[in-house]
Amino acid sequence: MKNCNFRAVAIIVAFSLLTGCGAHAGVEDNNLGEIEPELIEIEDLSDAWGTILNSATKEFIGGHPIDESFLMMITSEYGEETIKEIASYANFTTPEIWYKLTGKSVHVLWYEYCQQTGLEAYDNRKTYVLPNEDGGDIVIDFTGDVSLADGIATTNYMDQQEEGILDCFSEDLLFEMRSADILMINNEFAYTSRGQALQGKAYTFRANPSRVGLLKELGVDCVSVANNHVYDYDTTGFLDTLDTLSNASMPYVGAGADLKEAAEPLYFIVGGRKIAIVSATQIERTLSYTKEATPDSPGVLKCLHPELFCQIIKKAQTNADYVIVVPHWGTEGNAYYGNDQASLARSFVEAGADVIVGGHTHCLQTVEYMDDVPIFYSLGNFWFSTTANMPSDYSTGMAQIRITPDGEIETYFIPCHFSNGVTTMLSSEDEKYSDIINSLNGLSSSAVIDEQGHIKEDF
């Protein structure tokens, strides 16, 4: 490791000699079987360090190679009594005590340690630290399809408005989008002024790269590019899109210049928690307009055959407190989710997904639960049109994930309505609000949305 001064090394060596501790915790050999774990009695600081290094379960230390210098950092920043109390829980398989006593999960603490030491074995290229101003729930909002493509009705409408994109959303909806800790949209188009539209494809969408700044006006924190329109202008347009997003410091997930990049999760650290977002597309299922990333060629991450994507979910699950899976799937125009979606959802849940938020169908699909995991099958269109003709009014909405200070996941649906170029957040007094909720509830067999938009499992 780097940046570890001589005095720190001396302390580590002295402690190791005193306790006989090895460099890393021996967590692999700890087998609790069916025995209910009990608090370990900790005598002193030496005992605390030794207990964590030699007796902690792999789950308790987040699977990280915890060593003496990491424990030194925790002791220095949070005090001896804190590390002693943490150590008393070392034989548990839940690491929540780290958060309760430090305000940060073990994954966040490990990230900070790696940043301080320059530990090169830990890849933080797509890890973003965000503020959490009020210290309450962590709020993550998701929208369906958004397009800033040239020549379509919504973009034409925007260009005619005095305040541009800001006039395309109701004031209260803009406030919600901007105030979320994380706002993610599906970027359903390419950013490019080069290349040729794919021959034979019915709908192709591209926006001038200068439009990318509009995302931050809306409060967008990241985008999914795992969809069937990001490649509409072939390899040139696709790579322009990735470059445009990178140059604008807009995190993206689900595609890349090669498979390694396409497979990288996004990680956000906010409110002392680490959240992973992974994305892939099932579409196209029979065509191959949108190229799949390979080890040496650019493209999107695909999940029609989910084995690789499930490996990515599992990897993210070992490195974060929560994993949110964002698939592009389903059948366009069908409000009923298909068996193919349910089958993929099953594989994602078994791989470690905590929440699934889907899209692609251009219409709302319902919310279900699978093994206590909430699944928004499709958020449909959020602000989207396909031609220069303004589309008919449509129902839409946002998925909202709230992570409470206790670490619980609460889910909400925020009903919205699109009409004549403007997406509006509906109030509970609006008849359309109840119509949307009633419609989604009528399609669900395992979830119920109440009049406040709160979603609960329906046993």
Automatic annotation (TrEMBL):
Please give the InterPro entries that the UniProt record associates with this protein: Capsule_synth_CapA, CW_Biosynth-Accessory, Metallo-depent_PP-like
Q: Does the keyword Signal apply?
A: yes
Q: Where is the signal peptide?
A: 1-25
Chain ranges of the Capsule synthesis protein CapA domain: 139-386
The source's domain of life comes to Bacteria
Q: Which PROSITE patterns does the UniProt entry name for this protein?
A: PROKAR_LIPOPROTEIN (PS51257)
* Keyword annotations: Signal
Q: Which family does it belong to?
A: Belongs to the CapA family.
PANTHER family registered for this protein in UniProt: PGA BIOSYNTHESIS PROTEIN CAPA, POLYGLUTAMINE SYNTHESIS ACCESSORY PROTEIN RV0574C-RELATED
**Protein name (record):** Capsule biosynthesis protein CapA
